[in-house]
Structure formats: structure tokens, C-alpha cells
Fold this protein.
Amino acid sequence: MHSSKDERLITVLVADDNATDRAILQAILRQQGHRVLIAEDGQQAVDCFRAQRPDIVLLDVLMPKLDGVDAARQIKVLAGEELVPILFLTSLTDTDSLVKCLAAGGDDFLSKPYNAVILQAKIRSFFRMRTMQRTMLEQRDQIAQHNEHFMQEQIVAKQVFDNITSGGDMDAEHLRYYLSPLTVFNGDVMVASTTPAGNLMVMLGDFTGHGLPAAIGAMPLATTFYGMVDKGFSMTDILAEINGKLKSILPVGLFCCATIVEMNFRKNNLRIWNGGLPAAYVYRNNGTVEQVKSTHLPLGVLNNKKFNANATLINMEHGERLYLWSDGIHEARNHAGEMFGEARLLAAFDKNKNAATLFDELLQSVKTFVGSSQKSDDLSLIELLMAPPSSAYVTPGTEQALSQSQLAEWSLSFVVKPSSFAMFDPLPLLLSVLLEVPGLRNHSGTLYTIISELYSNALEHGVLGLDSSIKDDPEGFEYYYQLRRERAQAIREGYVEIKLAHKTHTEGGSLEIIVSDSGNGFVLGERIKHNDTDYCGRGLKLVAALCDTLEVRGAGNVVAATYRWHTDD
Amino acid sequence: MTVTSTVSGDGKQLTIVIDGRFDFSAHQDFRSSYESLETKPERFIIDMTDTAYLDSSALGMLLLLRDYAGGDAAQITLKNASSDVKRILSISNFEQLFHIE
């Protein structure tokens, strides 16, 4: 009751043609601390209201020029949304007259003779109402403003998102898709791009949750996908990379159900990995449907050590199609709250006569089911058709451009000098270079062993002159590595050179590893003889088994190994 | 590379976990993990869940352990090795000398 607004100076307009009544009211109101404006008829009251916008209006019902009822109507129009309480002043006491006052837009009435206490109470009460209504209007405007701001932000965010996601090949032939207009804020994301080998890679993701948090996760997914597909990384590498990235940035509980597909139009097959999305359907030429169910956890749940990127290989004939969707279709509801569900989906396949029109039929049947009153704005549907690639794609120019975008043909020579022998291990550095080569990532364990063996051989036997036979018993083993430490620290000359040369071809590539050292060399035959239980001597045998070729050159201080890899490994 | 080991409550089983690269730089830690024990365990588990790479000196170390644990009578299990690591073990015929799971 004592809020400062309540106590604010209240401006009251008094309109009465009777000078005495006017004077009495004016005196009471002034005494109660209000500011008073005076009008002698209805017209003056309207003019005064327009000019001075009083808080509360007291109107005599019967006045010359414009009576109270008409003046009230005009004032209400002028007031607009604002609540301006109008109290009629009347000596009439019959019910009819009083009702008429209120019907004309009055909010209350005051009977003559005036009671100062009641007058004060009513003024206060209506002023409170007016303040409350004004606050409400302000808040409403604020909310509207915030909402408009938010919508604008969403539009900008969507533009940014579209720019990122449209980096690929969404118009690729044999690909059709439908995404609801504001899908990004439903948490659905779709990316598609063509690999350097001409395969089409498509990914549909559905982030848990809605709104901005879900959309934020889609950004790294899209940029990683496009960056890696362009460079020719395998689906397995891409999945692992996206999984690792999402795992590290998303809070627990937020993750991404996804299906990724790589269509190989030359070999008529596809690889598919489904982690948490509804089963994808393969629509065969004979009309049957095969489901590819989710067999993996969604992206961003497991750390990469536990993550399994194994994909399923499916052969397809020309004309056969694959359908992907998020749960938006299955969970679309009709008026009765029923979900569209798998049975209706299968029925739509059953009814289909011509595979080319199935995509539209599916969308149509979901939309018809949902009807007009419900929103159906989180539908995502993708169709992939197995068909021969158009000849235009494999122009020589394109091929050249594509191979430039990846680390295809290169070589490097890396020489380790004496002062580095004791402390420096070249393996992590060289391995990190090799991991930049698409296709070699899956081979890191094997490559590590090969290079590590060849380097250790060159350093220990070639440069440091250690003899493996020292390692023939447990103490010798210990002694051998103690010697190695000592000699590596003491040595002042010598070198080990590691040369890596890499080439890609259509279905993979080959890596040549040449390790040479400053030592006197050795005879290969002597090195590869040992029992399975000897502590040493299996290094080169291992390398020979892991590589495609292995040969000793020069005086035996140069070892060359070739490692071939295939895209399908 | 880190080598950590735990002995079972009854002292009969030793589990050695090798994290990262398993090569000669691990040999002192690896060896002391079983040689420093007061009683010699009956069973040995080498947990290779987090073993990224392996080279031939690691194979030598495994054989050292095998001889320490009784040679042909040794009960040593190498578990959770990645496919890369398994391949290396298999090229050296280690499945005939160790229990690999």
C-alpha cells in the first residue's frame, strides 16, 4: 500500500458543469494531495484529456455540448491500450442509470453527495489498477521485443549454419532429401559430400535436445565431415574424428544419433554405420525391404578407444534405394495423438508401385497422417539411389584437382644426429606425419612397429655397435639397454637417416621406408635366425612379415621396406 | 608410456597394465613390477587395453617375464590387445607361448 508508485502524485480530471460540485470535488482531491484538472463540459474534458493525459477521469453524466457517456467513449479511444479509469459522477441512484454508466465504458461511479473517504479509496484503488496494467503492457512489449530479437538471432544462426553445411554436395545426383525448414533447431543435421574417389558420403545426425545447444554440436560435425571427406579420409576415420570431437565438447547427456553412408557407384555397394537412428531401409528392385538397424552407440558417448566405427557393407543393384530418417517421421502424431510408427512406414513401401515416386509418397503419407492442425516441422528424409555415375564426373581435370587436395605423393628424409640419440625418439614425430595421410591412419600400429624396428636396428647395431646376443639371458637384457644408454650418451659421430616416400593410386597407396645408418652393415641372413623363445632377434622378421617387401642394400647398412595399403582395408 | 601393476588380495595374481607405447623404455618399470614382489605370483595378466604400439623389445620383455614365471609352466594372459598389437603377437607365434584373449 505504501509503494512509491502508489504515493505518486495522481492527476485527476474533473468534468462537471455545476460550478459548486466542481469546487467541492476539487477541494477534497487537492486536500488528499492529488493534482486536479478542471473541465466544464464533455468537450472540454476530451480536449483536456488529449492535452494532459490525466491518470483518472471523473465525469458528470449530464453535461452540455457533450454528455458524460459520449465523452467517456472518446476518452477510451484516445487512451488506447492504456487503462484510464473513468468514474461517473451522479446523483442518480436507480439501478438502470448506474448500469448505463458502466455500459458506456465507465469503470465505476461516485454518488453525490461525495464521501471523501470513499473517494480517496476509489482513486487509490483505480490508480493501482492503472499502474499494474501499465507494468503488464511494458512487460508484454519487452517479451515481444525479446522474442523478435531471438527470432532474428535464430535466422542469423541458421544462415551461419547453412553456410557451413552447404559446403558439400547437397545437390549430388542420386541424392534426394527433405529437411524441415527450421530443422537445425530441432537438432537434425544433414551433410553430404563427394569423396576424391567419386563416392558419395552422406550423414544424417539427430542431436539430443532442441534449440541452440543441439545446433551448436552440428557445427563441428559439419566442418569435420567436409574437411575430411574432401581430403579423402575413410568413413572410419571420419566417424572416429567426429565422435572424439563431440565427446570432448558436448556435455554428458547431449550426444548425436547418426547414420553415415558411403555410396560406391563404381562397385555398386554401400557402407553404412548406424548409431542410434531408426533402422535405415534398403528398397530392393523386387519390392522387398531390408532394414539396417542401429548396432552402435550414438556419436559423442564413448571415448575413441571404445568407439567402434565398423560399417556394414551392402551390395545394391542399379535402381535400388536406401532411405534414412530421424525419429521425426516415426514419432509424427495425428489429431488423436497416435504416432506414425513403423507399421505405417512399411505399409507405404508396400503400397508403392514405382520406386521413383516413393520418396514423395512417404512424405505425403506422413503429412496426410499428421493433418493440418499439428506441426510436422521436424521431418528429415533422405533417399539414395544406386545408379551408374554420370560420365561427366570423371573428367581428367577433376581428377587432377582432387588429388591436389590430399597428401598424395611426397617424400621426406629425416636424419637423427649424435646429440639426439640419447634423448630423442623420432617415432612420434614421424608417425604424426604419416597419420596426416588419408588411408594410413588405420595402419598406425603396424607402421609404428616397422619404423621403430628399423630405427632401433640402425641405431643399436649400426651406430652404437651393440650385439643382440648380449640379450641372451635376463641380466644380459638389462645390460644391453644399459649399454645402449651409455653409448648413446657418449657417441659423438654417426647418423641414422629415415626416408619415407609415399604414393597413392586409385585403390590405396604405398609407403617406402628406407633406413640407413653410419654403421658397417650386416648380413640379413644372420639376423633372421632364432627360436620363438629367444629374447631377441625377431625385429627384422617382424618387419618382413608386416611389409610387402624388405631388402637390405649397400653394405648392409641400408634397409628398404615397402608397405602397401588399400582403401578397403 | 606408463606401467602400473596390482596384486590380487591373495597375492597369487599380478595384473600389469601398460599404457601407451610398449618398447624398450618400459623395460625397467616392467621388470621391477614383478621382480620387486616378495612372493612370486602364480598367474600374470598383462592388460593391453591402452597399449597403443609394440615393438620387438617389448616381445623380448614378455619372454623375460615368461621365463621368470616358470617358462613352459608359466600362466600368463595377454588381454584386450588391439588388432594391431595382436597381429604383431601372432606374427611372432606368441599365441603358442602365452594365453591371448
Q: What stands out?
A: Chain A touches chain B through 28 residues (CB under 8 Å). Residues 1-6, 391-405 of chain A have pLDDT under 50 and may be disordered. The first strand of chain A starts at residue 11 and ends at 15. The first helix of chain A runs from residue 19 to 31.
